[in-house]
Amino acid sequence: MQQGIQLHNLEISGFKSFPDRSELAFDQGVTAIVGPNGCGKSNLVDAITWVLGEQSAKSLRGARMEDVIFSGSDGRKPTSAAEVKLLLKGVVSASNGNGNGHNVPVAVEHSDVSVVTQDTELAGVGTRDVVVSRRLYRSGESEYLIDGKVCRLRDVQDLLMDAGVGVKGYAVIEQGKIGQILSARAHDRRLLIEEAAGVTKYKSRRRAAELKLDAAQQNLVRVEDIVYEVQKQRNALKRQAAKARRYRRLRDELRKWEKVVFAHRYQLLGETVEAARLELTEARSREQVAADSLSQVETRQEQLRIKLAESETKVTSDRDTVHACDLDIKKRQQQIEFDKEQISNLNVTLQELRGEVSNLKLRQEPARIDLSERRKTVDLVRHERDQVAQQLSDVEVEDLGIRQAVEVKEKDVEACRSDVFSVINTATTLQHTLEHATNAQTRLLDELAKIDIENQDVKSETQQLSATHQTTVEARALVQKDLGTVLEAYGKCQRELSTLCEQHSVLLEKANTSDRDIATFAARLQSLEELSTARTGYIDGARFILSQKSETIPHFGSVADYVNVAPEYECAVEACLGNLLQYVVVSRHVHATEWLEYIRKEKAGRCGFLVVDDSPIKTEQSENITPAELLSVESVVTVEGPYASAIREAIRVVAGRVAIAKTPEQAITVAGQTSQQIVTLSGDIFSGSRLVCGGGQT
Question: 681 with 572, same domain?
């Protein structure tokens, strides 16, 4: 290792086979580390290589960078991180440093670590002890530290590069490395010597600077391309700026007239809506009055209908009662007739029974006399009883039969008498019932007469109610008709109001869209005005002169400031006139000469001038006649301003042999028939039947 730089101390924690914090001190002279195989000698060298910035896990004898973290053993758990600290003594640093080998704090993300040459004999150069640390976590995060402050890998590399200490340098010589150095080519030896001399740092910085210069050069090329494209677009942007200004003027005028129209429509709508509201209010009032009247009529009609129903029910009930009485009267009359016939029959039977009783009474008296005589005879001739027993027995039997017959007749007489009394009672009852029925019939007839009278009154009142109801229905129909008319008018007003609201919404949306378009065009106009003011798209010399304000050498703008072209002919006219549109207008030739001297002196580029003095211009009469189907450039260009005549002459000189075709087919047809150049509306140029030039802006 170079004189003055010394490894002083190595501290390891969690690195490979060193799970615990281990510290190794390097004394003056040679330090040898011996031990059996597998004790970790190579791991110490790997730790030094790793802390110096080694990025290859393969160089550290592992598959992944996480393999350097202690992975555990039978008696120990794996550690979560690996850390190695290396103390370097005699690191060269500038005298104005802060003692850690750099001029500025290495903890700053974009700071540059400044390590000066290793020649300690130079003025202002000293040495310092530096602690370089590296940590790696199992999550994959890692960090570098110099003197305990977080820094970048590049800071560590820059710090060690001047000292000749590096991962790939001669400071760490592995097995077989000496043989590789001895057998290396001259180029490889040169790299090793440059690293030992501290040149590698400056070569890496030179490479970074060259990359930055290449990027800057590419950016310059891109800027030149952009400037070229912007220059090509300047004329079109200028015309768009004029359109935008005209649009702004027309927009303001349109908004003014739209406000007038909207105000007028709003007034008309207000009047229409107010009239519709008045009509609706009146219609609702009439509807309310008609509804109240109709409600009263319907209430009266309902009352009369109820009364009529009650009357009809009563009439029906009375009719049923009268009919029942009639049926009862007829039934009783039939019963009376039947009873009369029964009475008549009973009277006949009674007369017959009375005759039979009389006969029996007439027969009973002789029998009694005969019996008395016989009893006397029996008493007298009792002793003759035996002789006349048979005769007496016959007489007794006959007497018993007569008695029985008398008793039967008496019973029949009593029964007939009871029947007669019953018939008389029944006849009396029927007579009374007939009298009651007659009285009831009389009353019913009177009630029927009254009911008929009431029915006539009810019918009359019903007819009146029907007439009133008809009148009410007609009035209601009229009210409903008026209400329908009013509702139709109200619906029409509502539809008109809805239509007007929709129109107002559409107009408002259009106004908002117009405002957005105006804002867009305003921003576009501002950009175009800025481009127009900066003369973007002009050649350098013209842009330089147009940006100057000189009282001694005046100019009057460019030719493009005086030319107006319809939008459809812009590309064609631009292709025809070319750079003439960028010519600066001056009043005298001496002014043009002075401006040319001025831009040569300032190295501002080239520029063309159009002198508009009053001297006559001699122009050759062109023998070319523009075909009838084509347009001349002069016919589509309008020149305004105080120098219009001079600019027209210049356009005639430049574009006298050019004609404009509306379609490519027309240009192809005419190009071979004339010596003029044919330009299409898209800016394509046809020269004869074989030459074509065109394209578009990128």
Answer: yes
* 607-625 mean pLDDT: 63
Q: What is the residue whose two structure tokens read 């300690």?
A: 120
Domain membership of residue 534 (yes or no) is no
Residues 397 and 484 in one domain: yes
pLDDT per residue over 7-23, tens digit each? 889 999 999 989 999 99
- 584-586/609-611 β-pairing: parallel
Identify the residue with better confidence: 536 or 213. 213
Q: Which two tokens stand for residue 626?
A: 């523009």
Three-state secondary structure call for residue 564: strand
Q: What is the pLDDT of residues 371-428, one digit of tens each?
A: 677 667 656 656 655 665 565 566 567 667 766 766 776 676 667 667 666 666 766 7
User: Does residue 296 lie within any of the structural domains?
Assistant: yes
Among candidate residues 272, 261, 263, the one with its CA nearest the CA of residue 499: 272
Residues 545 and 616 in one domain: yes
Residue 622 CA to its chain's centroid (Å) = 68
Q: Which DSSP string corresponds to 624-691?
A: ----TTSEEHHHHEEE-STTHHHHHHHHHHHHTTEEEESSHHHHHHHHTT-SSEEEETTS-EEETTTE
Residue 235 CA to residue 560 CA, distance in Å, equals 8
Domain that holds residue 565: 540-693
- In the block, which residue shows the tokens 């690195």? 15
Closest by Cα among 191, 94, 118, 109 to 153: 109
Based on the fold, state whether residues 225 and 331 are members of the same structural domain. Answer: yes
As a whole number of angstroms, the distance between CA 317 and CA 322 comes to: 9
**Bigger pLDDT: 254 vs 407:** 254
Spacing of C-alpha 628 from chain mean position: 59
Q: Which of 698, 694, 696 is nearest to 679 (CA)?
A: 694
**One-letter-per-residue 3-state SS of 299-327:** HHHHHHHHHHHHHHHHHHHHHHHHHHHHH
**DSSP symbol at 1:** -
As a whole number of angstroms, the distance between CA 270 and CA 266 comes to: 6
Q: Per DSSP, what are the bridge partners of residue 81?
A: 137
The CATH number of whichever domain residue 412 belongs to comes to: 1.10.287
Sign, CA dihedral 551-556-557-559, equals: negative
Q: Tell whether 140 and 68 lie within a shared domain.
A: yes
Asked if residue 138 and residue 63 are part of one domain, the reply reads yes
pLDDT at 214 over 80: yes
CA atoms of 159 and 134, how far apart (whole Å):
14
DSSP assignment string, 678-693: EEETTS-EEETTTEEE
